[in-house]
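ESCALATION

Customer reports they have been waiting on this structure for their group meeting. Please prioritize. Original submission:
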Amino acid sequence: MNKNELIAEVADQCEITKAQAAECVDAFTSIIAKSLSKGEEIRLVGFGTFTVAHRKATEGRNPRTGAVIKIAASNRAKFKAGKALTEQVNKNSAKRKAA
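Update from on-call: job pushed to the front of the queue and completed.
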């Protein structure tokens, strides 16, 4: 599913226009991005948790030349699925395999 398909699905389920659904989806993603950039955690019970993980600076190798390169430290967004989401995904995948 891409963003346009998600917007269409939100519009259908909430019985709103696609423009309104697009605003909601954009607001949701913007809020998550802003919170993560502040180092905050977003916990959606039953769905999952968005967190920020810090990666230390490391040394790597250029695969072509073998030269040592420095990889800068960075922050990465992480998502850990909640129990209810994991169960729903597993239930649906079991149905697909049985069919």
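Sent to customer with the following note: Strands lie at 42-44, 48-55, 58-61, 68-71, 74-81.
Escalation resolved.
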